[in-house]
Amino acid sequence: MPQKVRIALDAMGGDVGASVVIPGAAVALARHPDCEFLLFGDQARIAPELEQHAALKAAARVIHTDVAVGNHEKPSQALRRGRKTSSMWLAIEAVKKGEADVAISAGNTGALVAMARFCLHMLEGIDRPALAAIWPTLHGECVVLDLGATIGADARHLVALAAMGSAMASARLHIARPKVGLLNIGTEQMKGHEEIREAGDMLRAMNLPQLDYIGFVEGDGIGKGAADVVVTEGFCGNVALKAAEGTARQVVEVLRGAIQNSLMARIGYLLARGAFQTLRNKMDPRKGNGSVLLGLNGIVVKSHGGTDAEGFASAVGVGYEMARYDLLTKINQTFNREGGALASVPAAQEAVS
Amino acid sequence: MPQKVRIALDAMGGDVGASVVIPGAAVALARHPDCEFLLFGDQARIAPELEQHAALKAAARVIHTDVAVGNHEKPSQALRRGRKTSSMWLAIEAVKKGEADVAISAGNTGALVAMARFCLHMLEGIDRPALAAIWPTLHGECVVLDLGATIGADARHLVALAAMGSAMASARLHIARPKVGLLNIGTEQMKGHEEIREAGDMLRAMNLPQLDYIGFVEGDGIGKGAADVVVTEGFCGNVALKAAEGTARQVVEVLRGAIQNSLMARIGYLLARGAFQTLRNKMDPRKGNGSVLLGLNGIVVKSHGGTDAEGFASAVGVGYEMARYDLLTKINQTFNREGGALASVPAAQEAVS
Q1: ipTM, 2 decimals?
Q2: Beta-carbon separation of A223 and B267 below 8 A
Q3: Which of A246, A266, A271 sits opposite B265 (nearest CB)?
Q4: Which of A5, A13, A93, B140 has the fewest CB atoms found within 10 Å of its own CB?
């Protein structure tokens, strides 16, 4: 990698586009001065935003395009209309051409997954992409995947998710051999779907040097920090993440409503606001913003569409870390060294014999 | 139903048994004086607890048994060892014999599901039991099922879950036609597994008088109160519930830790403690304790094993409501009136034509 981390941004992605993406990039640049940016999108909307951020302007190049992927376009439609022309495509293509180390978009998830797959292709030995997010735990963070890039998973795909997730965790958390758990409805070995038990048997039998398989983790184990990486198929991962995010918001909303109902409580809140700030810092969904699209020949990060500049800066930070700490090399090491093992994984019964 | 609601309790169930079950029953009796209790278990452990609760003692009869199902016994093992003899079995059997209107246990979930199924049998037209819980929302409560009585579901089973869940919601929430949503990873009709889309088509086509099908609900829609009943298969429901419970605890724990770190915040907490009490009242997992085992010829309620007397009282309250407001009649009405329709539901394509 060159000395600078080169970040390609879809400046049109998300609910509002440039007015969040550009200030977000500026915040990220202040945190990571060793970045430079390629900004893809409508010059007329990007330029005025850039005028507000001199440092970013100096570290960025704008590549104009009129075409933007709509938030409600179907993936097939987005590909037809936006291939080779849209800001989303061009950002991804910059990674493919070697002009950027990572592409980041807050746009339409389905379109992003489809375009990234189409443009970058899958890594050898990996069939399907996965979306992985950073989840706050009581003691720090963990990586959870898949969050819905695809749904359903056989044992082999779960094992691939475990390997990719641990590469991401080691880039993010700087752990050499992350603890990996499979999400299940109980921790006993007899629990859950056949494919999960089989994946557990395979991971135990393979005993990979890149990850430490610790067994099954239940839904409440994620936030407890039971593992550094929690693996599940995309449907369940998506539901779990949204249920948890919804609950965190709900708790805060109930508390806020109750505080506003009483003068005494409002005074109490003022005195305790440092504690509430700590809560926000630890549980702020904006801090976990930035899911990594794994399994591709290149790094792509998806930001929430509805986030603000602070949230978008977090997503840029995730992209920066994945590029700086060699996510792809880490994944390739696992799949090259263990490629044979991962590709021709024996059936569970053989694996545990 | 006779004037009193007759409740059979497995006094040995849960992490500690009688010392939670008996005080919990006493709290529930104070709330619902029109109850009477059959207490199954070890007389030597029940009697001293009962001595502390005169009103309960007057409203209860103890039926002694030495046998209790262990928390870690496999269902098959529990059935072999505890059928006809264990406190869990005898409580369920009291419902079968018509001596009680509802059975409640804080014991081993797998054993409870297996024994209830074996003893009471499934209702006609329903293949598999389901566990349904009450989930706090921003505006009140909703019913979520299945939480893991079984895993996986085809479209027909999802439709049966919708019908049973809405009967439970109408008994709990006193709504004539509860709003029912299917849990999915997006609200667009093209999203998710085939069987979920098919179940949605079927529910729309059937247009049952007992429920108002509103479409797909995402993970964060549950706590927002998007529907009165949220339907999913057992694996995903179990993971979502535990992820949400874990997150609620995590938020409170982070906040508590932050408050304790600062004197000012501790003073603030004292002033705002009414607001924290409101939060506890609304989000207290003990208040939602008591999952209903649906689909059987009789009402069985499962309490968390690790709950306290207050939590066990909530589970008794759920059982009371289900018996008092005729859960079984409501389910049977749906399945008798729509029995043909539910049993011979046409394929989705036909249903929506």
Answers
A1: 0.86
A2: no
A3: A271
A4: B140
